Amino acid sequence: MQAPEDLKPLLEEILQDALTITDGKVADYIPALAEVDREHCALTVATLDGKITSVGDSTTVYSIQSISKIFGLMMAMERIGDELWQRVQMEPSGQPFNSIVQLEWEKGIPRNPMINAGAILVSDVLVSHYSTSKSALLNMVRSLCNNEGILADSRVHESEKSHGSRNSALAYLMKSFGNINSDVTEVLDHYFWQCSLTLSTEDLARGLAFLANRGVCPRSGEKITSHRDAQRINALLSTSGMYDQSGEFAFTVGLPAKSGVGGGMVAIVPDYGVISAWSPPLNSYGNPARAMAMIRNFANRLGLSVY
Ligand code: GLN
């Protein structure tokens, strides 16, 4: 199907379809996420001509969780270049996002930057190379999204810290192999803080448009990353962004994508735009059931697979 001039009726139909999906469980490892209304649902499409079309709760902010791994990764790539790939691999893990088993086998080198171990490693790079890694990341996200009001949710941040045993285990295991340079507490604090950033589907659609536009922000014309790095980030999102469901997502949808346990998800459509969706209930892989269904429907209806 050719993309219609006005996307709104199509998005409305897709959102209504997604609301019929009632399975899935809202993340409950911290109270601040468990309390979020499971009925929230939003879908936004930002196209490279600057148009943003949304339906549902598209201006409500939510905890972006692992979607923040994209922002951390691009900063680390920019800061230390190819040195990064000595410390984290670029291979799919085929394991749950918080798995620890491969990390022991592979001597503290995470399989990729999209699983928790990889994102904690990236946080170490940021903490080691920026005097204030959190404000550097926040300034970048605000500027990309053109929204100075973006904040981290301190309640989510604090409860991530007090329920962070598994992430701490990942960090200390990497430290024992000599792959974490900074103080582990500081590294984890950065990681939990970036997970607690709150953005809307519209913020994220706007903020990640450069990945669909060869590294250039379509709004300002500013070069955010090189074309090569945009391609590389998209490649990692394609192979690892949906964790151990990345293969199925590539097969059924065929777009670079990233999910978070707050129920958010983004998919990059090179040379077209960004699809951004949110609804809290998660499937057994920790990916958001309705958000995935909405992105799959939109991409399939318009034939957007990159393959
Ligand atoms: N804060 C979550 C964790 O570290 C992020 C994971 C996710 O969104 N998949 O477990």
TrEMBL record:
Q: What is its EC number?
A: 3.5.1.2
A GO BP entry is: glutamate biosynthetic process
GO MF terms held by the record: glutaminase activity
InterPro entries linked to this entry = Beta-lactam/transpept-like (IPR012338), Glutaminase (IPR015868)
Q: Where does substrate bind?
A: S66, N116, E160, N167, Y191, Y243, V261
Catalytically driven reaction(s): L-glutamine + H2O = L-glutamate + NH4(+)
- Subunit: Homotetramer.
Q: Which family does it belong to?
A: Belongs to the glutaminase family.
Write down the NCBIfam families for this protein, in alphabetical order. Gln_ase, PRK00971.1-1, PRK00971.1-2
Q: Which PANTHER family match?
A: GLUTAMINASE
Q: What protein does this entry describe?
A: Glutaminase
Give the species. Answer: Pseudidiomarina salinarum
